[in-house]
Specification:
The complex is a heterodimer. By secondary structure, chain A is an alpha/beta fold. Chain A has helices at about 15-25, 40-50, 65-80, 115-125, 135-160, and strands at about 5, 30, 55-60, 85-90, 105-110. The chains are: A alpha/beta, B alpha/beta.
Amino acid sequence: MARIFISNDLGDEHRADELRSALAERGHQALSVRAEDQGAKWYRQVDEDLENSDAVVVIVGSETSKWQESEIQQALEKSWQTPDTKIVPVMFGSQDLPNALSDFQAEVVQPGTQDWTSAVVQAVEAPSMVVDPYPGQRDKQRMAQKNSALRSWVAEQRKMLDQ
Amino acid sequence: MTAAPPKVFINCPYDSDYEPVLDALVLTTVFFGLTPTSALTSGDPGRARMERIVLAIEAADYSIHDLSRCRGEGAQGLTRMNMPLELGIALYRSHKNGHRWMALVPDDSPHQQYISDLAGYDLKVYGGDNDRVGAISKVASWYRSVGPADSPRITPRPITDSIPLFAQIKQHRCAEWENEPRLPWFELVDAAAETVDRYTN
């Protein structure tokens, strides 16, 4: 049995419920802080649940609330500390995968798919793949471009201060 | 005039105990292709310090606030209030025009008592002055989540690996500045940028 943290926005509560049932059928325990629990103690509860989870499923909605943003940030930190933590983003339709989740293999659910939870459960149960902690060539190029703009700007600021 | 990458206003203590964390915040920000600014960014000396800070926050898309020193200090038990004040300005701005902010608090911080109005916000708890790695992880996950869409995908590992090189570059520059204990802000940012340059090449 695995403990799976489900992160979702209020608008996707029905999907989270479907996934909870599918996970329970396979003998897994779903952890998630329900909408009505949101408040000052919520962050502590999320901390605790994430700490105790073996995998995190993120249902990516059309908008991300500050609550879900926080869950995603904490899930990322957990994956950095414990690299075999599985994170499975689930996307409905054709929206872009948020940058925060782009290191992970997403499950994309096509419109009209009835049994979308099976693929997610399968992804959760598959062996985890450890994410390379070092940036690839494309990210290094992006870093170099932005860094070059930063250094030019800093050089101009220093020059202005010297004058 | 070159356009700076999006700016991040860093509101934190500037004492020597905090320096390792400040370095970590600056280096992480530069790794993500962003421009660190602070109250130390000189600007027009003709303006009052507070006015310069307001302008710096106004010019920044993001801000990071560390409430580490918000407790009684010295014989009189005085508390430094500059950081909560600047956080308040950023919070107001976030409601007006989409500025994004995050706040770091050390794990022994009684912030729930002294600034209870922030209950319901996700203040990021880390280990304080001795927890550079924790600070990098909190800030990196925040940038990954709320930063510009074209940000490089970075994990904390290359940043923490680069700290010794950053320290070496800083030391070299301090010597050039006639052993000033603290580098001027732009020199510090450029030292971080040189570190990233060497990392990417």
